[in-house]
Amino acid sequence: MRPIGTLHLQPALDRPDLLAPPVAEALRAWHGKVDTSQFQVAEIDPNVADTAAFCATYDVPLDQSANCVIIAGRRGGETRYAACVVLATTRADVNGLTRRRLEARKASFAPMESAVSETGMEYGGITPVGLPETWPILVDAKVAEAGPVVIGSGLRRSKLVVPGEVLTTIPGAEVHDGLGIPA
């Protein structure tokens, strides 16, 4: 994999200390089913984990950075969750495509406390890797076509780098055109 910005990349499975426990568990469980050798990890300063600061600090173009947001959809007293993975140059279509996919009357970003407790990951580091198996993982088609992208590792102190098309092969992933809309 070609370098991205100034990140020092290492095979993710060689550095489980840089992965949230559900992320490390998922990568180990997928070994042989998903090409886990494509998952690289880089240690970063947790104070610059948020997308804009991270990209500026590590010279990563915004169109090579993808955000994973957790959406809560509600219908009839039931809450359903989904993850949306979009390029940092866009935002997730929460009240259109995502709401319809969840078959919800109302959809919004999951509250921080819910996102953290439901994923087992740190806020600001949430990634599609290692999410609950019952959740749909909606991946914007532009992420799938982007080549290597930077995503969260489940921790604020590191980032994963993986080819976008590999994200479409993880369990629960669905590719959707138009999930990422202009920011």
TrEMBL record:
Q: What one GO molecular function would you report for this record?
A: aminoacyl-tRNA deacylase activity
Q: Which Pfam families match?
A: tRNA_edit (PF04073)
InterPro entries in alphabetical order = YbaK/aa-tRNA-synt-asso_dom_sf (IPR036754), YbaK/aa-tRNA-synth-assoc-dom (IPR007214)
Enumerate the spans annotated as YbaK/aminoacyl-tRNA synthetase-associated domain: 46-167
This protein's name: Prolyl-tRNA editing enzyme YbaK/EbsC (Cys-tRNA(Pro) deacylase)
